[in-house]
């Protein structure tokens, strides 16, 4: 298998390992069992190979050289697991560390590969914030070196904003700043990054970004030239567009993810990514909508009129392109499927191609060559 798989793309799919108590959840026979390893076929479909059993590896982030990956284990007793991926696509667990929070839901690696920054969402008040871990040369994670608690919520949306909720961590294009989205506090917390310090983050409140109460900032991407930023808001169901100057973010526009139905059920902003060529932004609206929206990035950094597509599942939590850039994969948590789309890099058009695979409660997918 090793020789045949040497140039074979491998997909890792994260899951929730308990079945969500959600009205739209289509109950599977059993929840996800951990981190699934799948082979990418020539037609874009996925063939399951095996599963690395662990608790709720809900988000996957990979090192720049694809030799290592890190998963957030989204449980009450939050953890982060380090993995190695060899040239044949075999995956090995290196170690796991306490995330020092509850329900870690996102992580990012510093551009220099020295640190991992984990967003502990924490459903209950008191366990939310950002934790910082050093990454050793062998890919293993060291113990936590810094922690920033997100205690305060705006209270604008009851049950969602009673306390802070860290939902993602994102570096600026130049790598000088890290922004952490606080869904509960309606804020992007800004931190200056010092690569050579043992405690690399320095809070810089002058660079913080405040949202209208009840917005719920969730995920964030920067344009390829770093001059613009795009942030999905979960409860407002919007993309906030910012111009970036000297790492300051100034809002320049707001785009609704659903212009036809403004009810709360149809406002549930989710993931946001760039197309591989950097010309398009793809975002998800979940709830009762369950659509993908493709926006062209205009010359001035603003977003053009979107084209929307059915996600072909319920709760499209995460989505990723494979290494070729020709296929887009969407993890639909509540319908236990990974939907497949063919992507036209020139026009930005998506063409639905059915299911790539069926997996219980899938939450994320990433690719390794």
From TrEMBL:
It holds the Pfam family Lactonase. This is Lactonase family protein. Keywords: Carbohydrate metabolism, Glucose metabolism. InterPro entries: Cycloisomerase_2, Haem_d1_sf, Lactonase_7-beta_prop, WD40/YVTN_repeat-like_dom_sf. Belongs to the cycloisomerase 2 family. It comes from Candidatus Pantoea communis.
């Amino acid at each position: 298998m090793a020789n045949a798989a040497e140039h074979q793309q491998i997909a890792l799919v994260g899951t929730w390992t308990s079945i969500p108590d959600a009205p739209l959840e289509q109950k599977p026979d059993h929840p996800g069992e951990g981190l699934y390893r799948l082979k990418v076929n020539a037609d874009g479909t996925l063939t399951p190979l095996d599963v690395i059993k662990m608790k709720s590896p809900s988000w996957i982030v990979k090192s720049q050289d694809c030799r290592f990956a890190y998963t957030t284990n989204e449980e009450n007793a939050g953890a982060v697991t380090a993995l190695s991926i060899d040239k044949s696509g075999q995956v090995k667990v290196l170690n796991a560390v306490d995330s020092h929070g509850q329900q870690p839901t996102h992580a990012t690696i510093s551009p220099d590969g020295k640190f991992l920054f984990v967003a502990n969402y924490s459903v209950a008040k008191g366990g939310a914030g950002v934790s910082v871990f050093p990454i050793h040369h062998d890919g293993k994670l060291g113990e936590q070196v810094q922690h920033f608690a997100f205690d305060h919520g705006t209270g604008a949306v009851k049950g969602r904003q009673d306390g802070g909720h860290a939902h993602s961590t994102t570096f600026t294009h130049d790598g000088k700043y890290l922004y952490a989205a606080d869904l509960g506090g309606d804020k992007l917390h800004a931190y200056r990054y010092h690569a050579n310090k043992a405690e690399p983050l320095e809070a810089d409140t002058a660079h913080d970004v405040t949202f209208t109460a009840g917005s719920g900032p969730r995920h964030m991407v920067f344009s390829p030239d770093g001059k613009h930023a795009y942030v999905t808001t979960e409860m407002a169901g919007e993309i906030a567009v910012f111009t970036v100057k000297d790492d300051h973010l100034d809002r320049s526009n707001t785009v609704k993810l659903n212009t036809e139905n403004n009810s709360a059920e149809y406002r549930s902003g989710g993931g946001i990514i760039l197309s591989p060529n950097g010309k398009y932004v793809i975002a998800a609206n979940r709830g009762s909508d369950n659509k993908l929206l493709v926006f062209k990035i205009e010359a001035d950094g603003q977003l053009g009129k979107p084209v929307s597509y059915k996600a072909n599942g319920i709760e499209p939590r995460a989505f990723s392109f494979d290494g070729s850039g020709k296929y887009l994969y969407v993890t639909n948590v509540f319908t236990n499927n990974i939907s497949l789309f063919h992507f036209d890099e020139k026009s930005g058009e998506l063409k639905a191609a059915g299911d790539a695979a069926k997996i219980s409660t899938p939450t994320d997918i990433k690719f390794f060559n």
